[in-house]
Design a protein that fits this description.
The complex is a heterodimer of chains A (227) and B (457). Chain A is an alpha/beta fold and 227 residues long. Chain A is 41% helix and 21% strand. In chain A, 39% of the residues are buried. In chain B, strand 1 and strand 2 form a beta hairpin. Chains A and B meet through helix 4 and helix 8 of A and helix 6, helix 7 and helix 8 of B.
Chain lengths: 227, 457
């Protein structure tokens, strides 16, 4: 199911590369290269997602974002930026962006985040059923209880948060930095495999003793929870 | 108008005004109303006698002189003096010869009245009579009349001199100021011409110019240090990126030429990992520069350090376990509030913990402690590893200052440098201490730093 994505990026090479990849994923992509035009098109509100470069001609990305939010347009915004410091990222998020991706990034990382944002929008629009299930896995966010094939799993609080995040992005790739940002709320890049260790612990509790694994490693990108 | 001239004129004007004030004060204090009255009386008396002479000639004048000598008070002096200086008529005993060379009008002189032993000061008027004779009349005055008169004249002259002197002083001052500023300007000029070794000469006088000079020199020192650091950083960055970049290149080359698809996939995975580690190095370097530039202070807020350390130890606990070590943290019973950058401090603490896991995990236990005191909060990470000898600690804090170069696989030697930069951002410091045995790293931070305003964007 394709979605409408607005891509505001002044670097033509990056824009073409992203547009091609996102189109292949089945989305329809509208492109523009400056902030003014980007803001103009975004205000019509018919997009499912806006990918916004931070440094743009005429009006910079953060100002476009601020103007959109001031106009009560709540379309999810993913900021792309070459400014990589923790402070820059926090600033971007504080201005109302939904995610912040530092250049250079892999397409897999971008796609994972785009899908997560689109999914979140869907969930926001349709929150009717708050029980999550993936295959024979069942999660109740209210009581924070997890069952697999009817058997209760004993998870630590952080392991639960990790699993819930995976479940909300069922069938989509989730990267290590996404996990660190969304589950721990840290915006730096640790020099160790600390995230992998947490995921492998969760995997042990989740998949050990079951024939079919649910938590998969996606090479060169991250992880995916899928039945 | 040049600045020098303006300073000169201003100084001259100020000198004139202040001298006027002083002179006015002296005049006011010495000016005697009695002396002025006396002078008036003497002039009147002279005029009356001159009138008598004009209307009645010498006989009438002689009569008037007689009357004066008889009836007026004994301090009155009156006489007609011949052209030869001798007294023709009157009560003067001795007439100073200088008196006769003078012109008509009022003056002071020393005279001796008949019957007196010493000459005394008198206010006199002189009128020329026919035949070269002079009519002298006046009164013996109190002491100091002449001094007062001289003083008043001198004050007038002094005023003129004061104005001129002020102007002169102004010129000298302007020249001096110009010279001192010129020295600073010359240094600034040479520095704009890229010679950072220049310094403003500072005298021992410790005046405002010396202080200005010292400030400029301190600023230049700081700039040179930063430039030197930047140069070192660029050099070491170029040097340290060389090996990961060449590893990346050979991995990419091998991947491009691999024939077995499985092996190729493996090699591409390695290419991506190498690129990621390069990115990590660049991000860390950027983060250090940002922290040192203090731009992060705009995002400071209050938070509980005890909770942050709790979160982080929980996060690193599985990793420690995997490396056969144990992370020990006793969360303080009360919140430990700190005004700072939560994200960056999380990064600093995690760098210290990772450092301990990397080099001190063999020691078994790693302690994390948060110790609040009145002003400072100490965030400690201690291990039982090999530690760092005191003489190598400074090196360990430098960017790319990795001590154990044999372990090229892990870390770029930026962890401690970044933690230190983040400590500086909070007006605190990073200490490396001996855990006896092992390494004790301490982030010592003021609870709420008295921060200078963050530089504007």
């Amino acid at each position: 199911m394709g979605r409408k994505i607005l891509l505001v990026e002044d670097d033509r090479e990056t824009a073409a590369y992203l547009a091609k990849g996102l189109t292949q994923e089945g989305h329809s992509v509208e492109q523009t290269t400056n902030g003014q035009d980007g803001l103009f098109r975004a205000t019509d509100g018919s997009f499912d997602l806006i990918i916004l470069d931070r440094m743009l001609p005429i009006i910079d990305g953060l100002s476009v974002l601020k103007a959109l939010r001031a106009a009560k347009i709540e379309t999810p915004v993913l900021i792309l930026s070459a400014l990589a410091s923790v402070g820059d990222r926090i600033e971007g998020l504080e201005q109302g962006s939904d995610d912040y991706l530092v250049k250079p990034f892999s397409f897999a990382e971008l796609l994972a985040r785009v899908n997560a944002l689109l999914r979140r929008r869907e969930a926001r629009v349709n929150p009717a059923d708050h029980r999550l299930s993936v295959g024979d896995l069942e999660i109740d966010p209210l009581s924070r209880s997890v069952r697999r094939a009817g058997k209760k799993l004993d998870l630590k609080p952080r392991e639960y948060l990790l699993l819930e995040y995976f479940a909300r992005n069922e069938g989509r790739v989730v990267t290590r930095t996404m996990l660190l940002e969304q589950v721990w709320d840290y915006h730096f890049d640790p020099g160790t495999n600390v995230i992998d260790v947490h995921v492998s612990r969760l995997r042990r509790k989740l998949d050990e003793g079951f024939e079919k694994p649910l938590l998969h490693t996606v090479r060169g990108a991250g992880y995916m929870l899928a039945a | 108008m040049s600045t020098t001239l303006r300073i000169a004129l201003l100084a001259g004007l100020l000198a004139l005004v202040s001298n006027l004030a002083v002179i006015g004060f002296i005049y006011y204090r010495t000016h005697d109303q009695a002396a002025a009255t006396l002078r008036q009386q003497v002039i009147e008396q002279g005029k009356v006698l001159a009138d008598v002479y004009r209307s009645g000639g010498r006989p009438a004048l002689d009569g008037a002189i007689h009357d004066t000598m008889t009836y007026a008070d004994p301090q009155t002096a009156v006489a007609v003096i011949g052209a030869d200086g001798r007294q023709v008529e009157g009560n003067l005993d001795a007439v100073p010869p200088s008196l006769l060379k003078s012109r008509e009008g009022y003056r002071n002189a020393l005279i001796r009245l008949r019957g007196q032993t010493t000459p005394r000061e008198a206010a006199l008027t002189m009128h020329q009579l026919a035949g070269g004779q002079w009519l002298v009349s006046g009164r013996i005055a109190g002491e100091g009349l002449a001094i007062r008169d001289t003083l008043e004249r001198s004050l007038l002259i002094a005023l003129v001199f004061a104005g001129l002197l002020g102007l002169l002083c102004g010129l000298i001052l302007a020249h001096y100021v110009g010279r001192r500023i010129g020295e600073i300007a010359r240094v600034a000029n040479r520095i704009s011409a890229r010679d950072l070794t220049q310094r403003v000469p500072v005298s021992r006088a410790d005046d405002a110019f010396d202080r200005l000079g010292r400030q400029i020199n301190a600023m230049l020192d700081r700039i040179s240090t930063l430039m030197e650091e930047l140069r070192l950083l660029t050099d070491s960055l170029a040097h340290d990126l060389r090996s990961p970049v060449s590893r990346l290149r050979s991995a990419a080359f091998a991947a491009a030429h691999a024939t077995d698809p499985h092996e190729q996939e493996e090699l591409f995975g390695s290419v991506i990992r190498q690129a990621d580690s390069l990115m990590r190095i660049l991000t860390a370097v950027l983060e250090i520069s940002r922290s040192e530039a203090l731009t992060g202070r705009r995002q400071f807020a209050w938070f509980d350090v005890g909770e942050l350390a709790d979160e982080l130890t929980e996060m690193y606990d599985p990793l420690a376990e995997e490396r056969a070590a144990k992370l020990v943290y006793d969360r303080p019973a009360w919140p430990v509030p700190l005004f700072g950058h939560r994200q960056l401090l999380a990064q600093a603490i995690s760098n210290l913990v990772e450092n301990a896991l990397r080099y001190g995990a063999a020691g078994g236990e790693i302690w994390v402690r948060v110790e609040p005191s009145e002003r400072n909060i100490r965030i400690e990470v201690a291990d039982r590893g090999p530690g760092i000898p005191p003489e190598r600690r400074e090196e360990a804090l430098r960017r790319f200052g990795r001590l154990d170069t044999s372990r090229s696989d892990e870390g770029a030697g930026l962890g401690l440098a970044l933690a230190q930069a983040i400590a500086h951002l909070h007006n605190g410091r990073l200490l490396l201490e001996n855990n006896q045995p092992g390494l004790l790293t301490v982030l010592e931070l003021p609870v709420q730093a008295e921060l200078p305003p963050a530089p504007a964007e």
